[in-house]
Automatic annotation (TrEMBL):
The lineage of its organism: Eukaryota, Fungi, Fungi incertae sedis, Chytridiomycota, Chytridiomycota incertae sedis. Pfam families: MutS_I. One of its GO terms (molecular function) is ATP binding. It comes from Blyttiomyces helicus. It comes from the Eukaryota. Residues 11-131 form the DNA mismatch repair protein MutS-like N-terminal domain. GO terms for biological process: mismatch repair. Coiled coil: none annotated. This is DNA mismatch repair protein MutS-like N-terminal domain-containing protein.
């Protein structure tokens, strides 16, 4: 598999899991990103401007590419995460590093001893980026289920990935004499925790309007 195809396959795989994905692939002393000229594959044309990276056309005349030195990785991850991207980092591993993993198929290089394999070593989002300047790095998960028109329940879990790693849970539900208390309480908790990332799940897909309130 060519380097470009490996990059595109990784991008396609993680695009199915996350809304906005930025794949950074180590190639020697640089991290690189790619897009096809017609922009049907990859998204370098979208993420390069966010990190002040210029794109150039590869020799194949089909691919746009951009890159930056290894030392700039953390800085550029921070910029991409701030723009709500989930960053997937592919690091380059030598044959020696991979010798204990028989499942790896090492790609040929100029010298056999320098053959390389690239592995996903980091997946970073706002909820997991520990260089975030905020004191707390709260991630909030909300589970919503409506049993009837006037009866809805929420399960809430909050975790701080930076300081303590503690998980705090809440459960709130509508009351016969106060149908809106459940959503009101959830909104108060969202304001209280001020999460950098919020995941909302519902088992009742027809109740999108309830999710929209959040």
């Amino acid at each position: 598999m060519s380097l470009i195809e490996e990059y595109y396959d990784t991008f396609d795989e993680f695009s199915l899991k996350y809304k906005n994905v930025a794949v950074l692939m180590q190639v020697g002393g640089f991290y690189e990103m790619y897009s096809s000229i017609d922009e049907n594959r990859g998204n370098a044309t979208k993420i390069a401007p966010l990190i002040n990276c210029e794109l150039a056309v590869r020799a194949d005349k089909k691919t746009l590419m951009g890159g930056f030195p290894l030392k700039s990785l953390d800085k550029n991850i921070a910029k991409l995460v701030e723009h709500d991207y989930t960053v997937v980092v592919l690091e380059q591993k030598s044959k020696v590093d991979c010798k204990d993993d028989s499942s790896m198929e090492l790609e040929p290089d100029v010298e056999k001893s320098q053959r390389m394999k690239r592995l996903v070593t980091q997946i970073i989002s706002k909820g997991t980026f520990l260089e975030n300047p905020k004191l707390f790095n709260n991630t909030l998960a909300i589970y919503c289920k409506r049993y009837s028109k006037d009866y809805i329940t929420f399960g809430i879990a909050n975790t701080d990935a930076v300081l303590y790693g503690n998980i705090i849970t809440h459960e709130v539900r509508s009351l016969p004499d106060d149908k809106g208390i459940a959503i009101d309480t959830v909104l108060k908790l969202v304001t209280q925790y001020n999460p950098v990332e919020c995941v909302v799940v519902t088992t009742n897909g027809q109740w999108e309007k309830d999710i929209d309130h959040l």
